[in-house]
Amino acid sequence: MNELYPLRGNTLEQDASLCLALLLGYSVSMYAGWEDDLKRDNILARSLELLTSLPPSPLKDDLLTVCKEYSTV
User: Fold this and answer.
1) What pLDDT was estimated at residue 73?
2) pTM for the full predicted model
3) Is the dihedral of CA 11, 12, 13, 18 positive or negative?
4) In the list 3, 40, 41, 66, which could disulfide-bond 26, CB 3.0-4.6 Å?
5) Torsion angle of the four alpha carbons 44, 48, 53, 57, in this order, in degrees rounded to the nearest 10
6) In whole angstroms, what is the distance from residue 40 CA to residue 53 CA?
7) Which InterPro entries would you find in this protein's record (predicted)?
């Protein structure tokens, strides 16, 4: 996750896929510390921004579902 965290996708869909993978990874991390919490919060904010631009798709639905687990969207 630490290697993927600074990366960005070349398209909205790639970036959304990356955010989804990171959020899922942080959600199952047994050894998450405060730094991981900050990274997760940054990815969540990025994901919420992407949701406003993504066209309807299964990827958007999945990302929205995961985001709802962390916050109220």
Assistant:
1) 46
2) 0.86
3) positive
4) 40
5) 80
6) 20
7) UpxZ_fam, UpxZ_sf
| Chain position carrying tokens 């997760």 | 40
Which residue shows structure tokens 């109220």?
72
* Sequence-ordered list of residues with C-beta below 8 angstroms from that of 26, at least 6 positions apart, any chain: 1, 32, 36, 39, 40, 43
8: which 2 tokens? Answer: 């960005």
SS3 content of the chain, % helix, strand, coil (to 5): 70, 0, 30
d(C-alpha 45, C-alpha 64), whole Å: 12
Q: Give the mean pLDDT per block of 10 residues along the chain (73 residues).
A: 90 96 83 82 95 96 93 57
For the four alpha carbons of 21, 3, 50 and 43, in that order, the dihedral sign comes to positive
Query: Which helix or strand (DSSP H or E) is residue 39 part of?
Result: helix 34-53
Of 47, 38, 42, nearest in space to 66 by CA: 47
Joined tokens for residue 56: 């309807």
